[in-house]
Write a structure and sequence with these properties.
With about 220 residues, this protein is mainly β. It contains three helices and 16 strands.
């Protein structure tokens, strides 16, 4: 079950002084509907045609933000931008935040601040905040690129490791676009599934087998 609560209820929290993290670390995932591990020729062909949508999430293993303990809680962000993410934007992006339904009121506010702090300008314009189950799991696999995210019933990511032989298309692939947020250590992965079916942006998307994900960890001191 997804519950919505007013963005205005968080206005004072979001507008206050920058969040103070007492050492927050955990897992991170993102996927967007353009290739991030790719060659320049393929990237240029996608620019401002696709890659304007993304889903990302943070799961806190341990840590506090503004004195609020967040161990085991997660927050996801769904983004709709005017231009391909990773390029200069001609207009502000819009973001929907999905906060772990296991969190209490203070933890929800702290998770919103954590996401906005890490997402920066990309998450500056929040059009909605929902409480929902947010389940992020990094799976055991050889190269560390396997993970899954389910945020409510509308946002989903599932990834696998990049196979440098079979996933190459032009022989010149690399991390063309870096991760969307700061303070992460992440590796590119294939998004076996990346989708959003909600109503926040008057658009939905569903992508598969795209070399457009990052999987790893984050740490804020």
């Amino acid at each position: 079950m997804v519950r919505c609560f007013a963005v205005a209820a968080f206005a004072a929290v979001i507008a206050a002084a920058p969040a103070r993290a007492g050492g927050v670390s955990g897992q991170y995932i993102e996927a967007r509907n353009c290739d991030v591990w790719t060659g320049p020729c393929f990237a240029n062909a996608e620019m401002n045609l696709t890659g304007k949508n993304a889903v990302m999430a943070w799961k806190v293993d341990k840590g506090t933000l503004d004195g609020v303990r967040l161990d085991g809680l997660a927050v996801a962000a769904v983004v709709s931008a005017s231009d391909t993410l990773g390029l200069a934007q001609t207009g502000p992006a819009r973001a929907l935040l999905m906060v772990d339904d296991k969190a209490n009121a203070a933890q929800r506010a702290a998770l919103v601040r954590l996401a906005k702090q890490q997402g920066g300008r990309l998450l500056a314009r929040v059009v909605g905040v929902e409480t929902a189950p947010v389940r992020l799991e990094l799976c055991q696999c050889k190269d560390g690129g396997c993970a899954s995210l389910q945020a409510g019933t509308t946002a989903r990511i599932r990834t696998r490791c990049i196979d440098c032989k079979h996933d190459k298309l032009c022989g010149n692939e690399g991390n063309f676009y870096p991760p969307l947020v700061k303070n992460v250590k992440a590796q590119a992965a294939v998004a076996v599934e990346h989708s959003f079916s909600g109503k926040a942006f008057n658009e939905t998307w569903k992508d598969s087998e795209r070399r457009g994900a990052y999987v790893g960890s984050f740490e804020v001191r």
